[in-house]
């Protein structure tokens, strides 16, 4: 079997397996419209897993397998902390109510007042990981991180990958440079341990990543602060993350209509089971499939859609809006490849400013090859945009490009290349040429 067809799977853990059983029992016991399965995989254990499992097994059961409500409530109170209790509030030291130079172009009093209200939210969202997580990691699904964190909020009680890019943009506007650098330090620690930045800082996210924007975060901080030491510390981790995204499961070779071969990348989670944070929902969706292998492939497509950050869009469905036709791993996405182009350009810049000219040259060459690949495989001259490309089979050594395999639907992701200078400059050049021709009557 070709290496890119091997069904790579990250092993689960005994803690996650148990918490999934607890989640299912809680759903059977408490079933109501606002049931949140994530709560039950976020709760830290008070005692060792073996002790907790033994107590769970001894709970009385109803005929349908559920536990009497009061018995399950007492069990959870006795053996678990609350979801999110392993994070503690942190007062960010670089926060001030109105930073000097904050949004200098915003003068309207009401708009400024609103912006400062948004700015004040950093105090509500700033956390640090409890010492208990580092002391007894086997009792938590939350992963220990070295620095302070900023969480999205609500039910999302942990750091998330591509959310952190937008968080950092906001922190830089708020002049909170130290907090922004701490986020980068946390994400680098995940690369050091797992080889890539996880979807989020939980044990159940170790099977997938998210859109690769770490280099963009570092670029924004460097552009704002000139912190060369941060760049030096970050470069080895970025090179490691780049290897992850160019591993066999993510990398594909395509032969275009001119007979040229190109390499592009896709999302591909290393998982073929229900996602622990949403196990009961995933199993319900997979019940439409009869065979084990079909269910496993569906679970992989679900997790891969989550890796894309677009969970769950008709963009990944062969027959939208039929949810069970998710086929994320069969799509070569415009946005992922644009983000990887940005990563290549950023690594080239970082290598250049730190004196590593050979790495800089290599990544400039990589970025040039990717731009050509994207223009060849994604660009649609009639629609004047880049379009996702559907694979007819995921196991071919070389995929032959066909015009009808471009996804003709319009998504915001089709325009992500315009965020990258090579495409932005190219579009300006095209606009200038067109304007000249119009002006001269040609």
Please describe what this structure looks like.
- Keywords: Glycosidase, Hydrolase.
- Belongs to the glycosyl hydrolase 37 family.
- Pfam families: Trehalase (PF01204).
- This is Trehalase.
- It is a single chain.
- The protein is mainly alpha-helical.
- Among the domains are: 3-79, no CATH class; 87-129 and 143-244, no CATH class; 276-332, no CATH class.
- It is 48% helix and 7% strand.
- The protein is built from 15 helices and 10 strands.
- A hairpin with a 5-residue loop joins strand 4 (251-255) and strand 5 (261-265).
- Helix 7 (161-173) runs antiparallel to helix 8 (177-194).
- The chain is globular.
- The relative contact order is 0.09.
- Mean pLDDT is 93; it is low at 430-438.
Which tags fit this structure?
mainly alpha, EC 3.2.1.28, 6-hairpin_glycosidase_sf, hydrolase, 48% helix, glycosidase, 3-stranded antiparallel sheet, 442 residues, alpha,alpha-trehalase activity
């Amino acid at each position: 079997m070709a290496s890119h067809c091997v069904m790579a799977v990250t092993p689960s853990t005994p803690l996650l397996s148990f918490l999934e059983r607890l989640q299912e029992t809680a759903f059977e016991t408490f079933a109501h419209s606002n049931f949140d399965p994530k709560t039950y995989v976020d709760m830290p254990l008070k005692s060792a897993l073996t002790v907790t499992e033994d107590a769970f097994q001894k709970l009385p059961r109803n005929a349908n397998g559920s536990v009497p409500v009061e018995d399950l409530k007492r069990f959870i109170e006795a053996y678990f902390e609350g979801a999110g209790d392993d994070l503690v509030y942190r007062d960010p030291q670089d926060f001030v109510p109105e930073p000097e130079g904050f949004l200098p172009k915003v003068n309207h009093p009401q708009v400024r007042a609103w912006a400062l209200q948004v700015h004040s939210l950093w105090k509500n969202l700033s956390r640090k990981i409890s010492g208990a997580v580092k002391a007894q990691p086997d009792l938590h699904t939350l992963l220990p991180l070295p620095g302070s964190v900023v969480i999205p909020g609500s039910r999302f009680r942990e750091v998330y990958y591509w959310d952190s890019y937008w968080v950092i943009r906001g922190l830089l506007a708020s002049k909170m440079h130290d907090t922004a650098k701490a986020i980068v330090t946390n994400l680098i620690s995940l690369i050091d341990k797992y080889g890539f930045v996880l979807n989020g800082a939980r044990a159940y996210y170790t099977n997938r990543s998210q859109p690769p924007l770490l280099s963009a975060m570092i670029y924004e901080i460097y552009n704002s602060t000139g912190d060369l030491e941060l760049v030096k510390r970050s470069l080895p981790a970025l090179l490691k993350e780049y290897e992850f995204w160019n591993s066999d499961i993510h990398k594909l070779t395509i032969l275009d209509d001119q007979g040229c071969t190109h390499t592009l990348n896709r999302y591909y989670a290393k998982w073929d089971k229900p996602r622990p944070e949403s196990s009961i929902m995933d199993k319900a969706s997979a019940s439409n499939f009869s065979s084990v292998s079909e269910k496993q492939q569906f679970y992989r497509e679900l997790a891969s859609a989550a890796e894309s950050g677009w969970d769950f869009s008709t963009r990944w469905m062969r027959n939208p809006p039929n949810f069970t036709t998710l086929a994320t791993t069969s799509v070569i996405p415009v946005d992922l490849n644009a983000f990887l182009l940005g990563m290549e350009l950023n690594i080239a810049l970082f290598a250049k400013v730190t004196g590593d000219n050979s790495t800089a040259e290599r990544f400039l060459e990589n970025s040039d090859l990717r731009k050509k690949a994207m223009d060849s495989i994604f660009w649609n001259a009639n629609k004047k945009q880049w379009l996702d490309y559907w694979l007819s089979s995921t196991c071919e050594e070389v995929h032959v490009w066909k015009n009808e395999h471009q996804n003709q639907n319009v998504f915001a992701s089709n325009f992500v290349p315009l965020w990258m200078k090579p495409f932005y400059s190219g579009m300006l050049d095209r606009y200038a040429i067109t304007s000249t021709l119009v002006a001269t009557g040609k």
